[in-house]
């Protein structure tokens, strides 16, 4: 009988096999994604920004959007304003419904400014500053913020596991290292 504080390789193999099976069952279908959407941490984050953004009346590719996320992924944002203070948290399907109801008639563009990746093998953390515009030709952004994505790679592709974000305020502006060097738009 094994010592209670030592593990044998046999249960570990079963645990690894069980984990691999559980992960494979949790993965959403991938047929709807664009080539290259999940090749790197940067590409999957920028694919998310691309698919969530659209002009008023345009149809977003929600199947492509869903294919970026690991099943059960969560998105949360901390908000502090005159209107509300707290944390809003949602899953991928609730974000689809919220985006369709709030921005179908106005348009919505979440534009990456600076993206930084910290990678450790099959895990990556991506910090990305962004600006929001209702129309791409708006004179100024409606707001800016920071997203922090947690990603995992299953050996074949990257998946978004979670995203936490915060909006810029006067008391908490974007840090200089997350501001584009010059002009507006995406900096990779």
TrEMBL record:
This is Nuclear transport factor 2 family protein. Residues 1-33 form the signal peptide. It comes from the Bacteria. Keywords: Signal. InterPro entries: NTF2-like_dom_sf (IPR032710).
């Amino acid at each position: 009988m094994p010592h209670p504080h030592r593990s044998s390789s046999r249960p570990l193999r079963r645990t690894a096999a069980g984990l691999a099976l559980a992960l494979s069952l949790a993965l959403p279908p991938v047929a709807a994604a664009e080539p290259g959407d999940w090749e790197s941490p940067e590409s999957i984050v920028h694919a998310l920004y691309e698919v969530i953004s659209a002009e008023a009346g345009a149809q977003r590719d929600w199947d492509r959007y869903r294919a970026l996320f690991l099943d059960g992924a969560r998105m949360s944002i901390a908000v502090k304003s005159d209107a509300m203070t707290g944390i809003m948290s949602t899953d991928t399907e609730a974000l689809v419904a919220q985006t369709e109801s709030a921005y179908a008639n106005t348009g919505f563009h979440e534009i990456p400014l600076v993206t930084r990746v910290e990678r450790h093998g099959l895990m990556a953390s991506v910090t990305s500053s962004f600006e929001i515009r209702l129309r791409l030709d708006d004179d100024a952004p409606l707001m800016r913020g920071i997203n922090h994505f947690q990603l995992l790679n299953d050996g074949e592709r990257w998946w978004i596991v979670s995203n936490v974000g915060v909006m810029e305020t006067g008391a908490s502006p974007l840090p200089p290292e997350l501001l584009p060097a010059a002009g507006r738009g995406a900096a990779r």
